[in-house]
Amino acid sequence: MSYDLWYWPGLPGRGEFVRLVLEAAGLPYRDRGPEEGAEALLADMERGERPPFAPPYLRVEGQAIAQVANILHWLTERHDLAPQADRVWLLQLQLTISDMVAEVHNVHHPVATGTYYHEQKPEAARAAQQFGKDRIPKFLGYFERSLDGRDWMAGGRWSPVDTSLFQLIEGLRYMFPKRMAAVEGDYPALIALHDRVKTLPAIAAYLDSDRRQAFNEDGIFRHYPELDAA
Predict the structure, then answer these.
(1) Could you tell me the pTM of the whole model?
(2) pLDDT > 90: percent of the chain
(3) Which domains can be identified in the chain, with CATH numbers?
(4) Residue 31, number of CB atoms within 10 A of its CB
(5) Where would you tag: which of 22, 23, 46, 75 has the fewest CB atoms within 10 A of its CB?
(6) Burial of 223 (0-12, 13-18, 19+ CB in 10 A)
């Protein structure tokens, strides 16, 4: 079976967390948003009796499976991507990653998501200071402790949480290069996990392909130099 993945064209965003799992697991898929455009995405979202609230979502046999943590949990169950005993734990971690991603977005849109960054720059500066000082250490420290000396979060093999942590670190490095350079040494196991994911053969091939979309200032992880401080 080939999956249809729908997400906004031109943005890695939340869709990238799903792409990485599909790529790492060797699951065939079509990236429908970039192929067909935003208008086709909006039209597809209206299909069916149980439409998604927002992308990303997988279209599977007419059903839309939405929300990153839910999609990855569904793929894990369907394709045995993690040990059975660890799956509730991994879902908990994935939901925590989703919490951090939401806070990342709120850094540059702290007042309203419907207004532009330049309309809320003073508030974004305050949000970035607090996020860099308090929230990055809180989240990354939690993930570091959760690894507890293991190579992979679930022990003997990679899981969707590992690829999601890779993307989280990549995004934070793009968004806050100075701050991440200053704090990464506090999380050696997490950074080693990031590096381990990067060397998975399927991921290495994907990162070297034109399917991998670059971070940009229209997505979730945005680099505004004035918001980055060591």
Answers:
(1) 0.96
(2) 93
(3) 84-199 (1.20.1050.10)
(4) 19
(5) 46
(6) middle
